[in-house]
Design brief:
Blueprint lengths: L4 H10 L12 H20 L1 H5 L8 H26 L5 H9 L16 H19 L8 H29 L3 H20 L11 H6 L7 H19 L9 E3 L4 E3 L5 H11 L3 H14 L1 H20 L1
Antiparallel strand pairs: 1-2
The protein binds benzoyl coenzyme A.
């Protein structure tokens, strides 16, 4: 008897064989991937904005050059991910349209403002650190184009995390005012970074299915816990505090216990009511409009080139 398409798909998933764009896949799997990958692509692109804010004000040429490179990397990540999402049968224009219409989500973290230079350090250390924790397992995601895109993205995120940590380390060894700026940035970015991992497992509607399909390999809470555990030791190197009075080593679990996340704040940010949601979306729409002529020129050039080839 022939195996059905569903059986073939299930057996590939169970044997860790990647699903590729032309393979049959359940419609729900396709939708789950489009949702997660397009949100991820949007996050990379919107994520350029808070940091881009500091390019003109970086404190030295070295810092400026590094920050420009980092922000450019984020653009590249967005492009790989939009391309990978297109292999699932949705166009880049459609996904971008969903973002601009306020229908598609992007990471809650990018709706917070970057008030001082130390925020650039805190983003690198905490936000990119959280991203790495979440994304390294995605290099083993069951969908081939997503997993392959994540390999390069993770390598670059690792450089981003180090540049952020080094900014904070420099500030933490500086003047009293610099140390205060460093602590203040950590205080403001710590809790939103923990929110990046998504709701607690019992309130995460997508996790279970996603893990069955081997898209996600760990639950939101598992990854959040790993992140807290590594950050506690790194904060000691910085001689900085993490703003959580409940943070305590638990010898029984072998992990750090930590305080309750403000989920009301998280869901408000998701609903569009965070400190910078409006500003971020407006900035994206303006950039998209202002870049229209570049897209049109590139498309016209490609058409002309194809036409000339046809004549040869
Ligand atoms: N922010 O069932 P759940 C970066 C949504 S970019 C906003 O647990 P899932 C970087 C979730 O979408 C960082 N929304 O969902 C870039 C779902 O809503 P829908 C981005 C969130 O998908 C520049 C609902 O809440 N990384 O690294 O199983 C500079 C229920 O959640 C958030 C990725 O996108 C959130 N924080 O798990 C620096 C990684 N959390 O769609 C750094 C890939 C949850 O049902 N994505 N929601 O309406 C993932 O790993 C997963 O999608 C998540 C959420 C862990 C984020």
């Amino acid at each position: 008897m022939h195996a059905t398409e569903q059986e073939l798909f299930d057996s590939k998933i169970s044997q860790e064989i990647r699903i590729e764009p032309k393979d049959w896949m359940p419609e729900e799997y396709r939708k789950m991937l489009i949702r997660q990958m397009s949100q991820h692509a949007h996050s990379e692109i919107v994520g350029m904005l808070p940091e881009g804010n500091w390019i003109t004000r970086a404190p030295s040429l070295r810092r400026k050059a590094t920050l420009i490179a980092k922000v450019q990397d984020e653009a590249g990540h967005g492009l790989y991910l939009y391309s990978a999402t297109e292999t699932l049968g949705i166009t880049r224009d459609e996904t971008i349209e969903q973002l601009h219409a306020g229908k598609a989500k992007y990471s809650s973290i990018f709706n917070y403002p970057t008030l001082t230079w130390a925020d650039i350090g805190a983003i690198g250390w905490l936000v990119d650190g959280a991203a790495i924790m979440n994304q390294v397992p995605l290099c083993r995601a069951s969908y081939g184009p997503y997993a392959r895109a994540m390999i390069r993205i993770c390598k670059e995120e690792s450089f981003h995390q180090r540049q952020g940590f080094e900014i904070l380390l420099t500030l933490s060894r500086g003047s009293e005012a610099q140390r205060e700026m460093c602590q203040d940035a950590i205080n403001r970015w710590w809790w939103p970074s923990l929110m990046m991992f998504g709701p607690n497992d019992d309130a995460s509607p997508n996790s279970q299915r996603s893990m069955q399909w081997k898209i996600k390999r760990f639950s939101n809470d598992e990854l959040r816990q790993k992140f807290v555990d590594v950050c506690v030791d790194q904060a000691k190197v910085l001689h900085m505090d993490l703003p959580d009075k409940d943070l305590k080593w638990n010898p029984d679990s072998g992990h750090y216990d930590f305080g309750e996340i403000n989920w009301d704040e998280f869901y408000e940010v998701l609903k569009g009511n965070g400190p910078c949601n409006h500003e971020r979306l407006e900035a994206r729409k303006k950039a998209h409009e202002e870049g229209r002529w570049v897209r049109e020129a590139a498309a016209a050039y490609a058409r002309k080139k194809n036409h000339n080839h046809a004549l040869i």
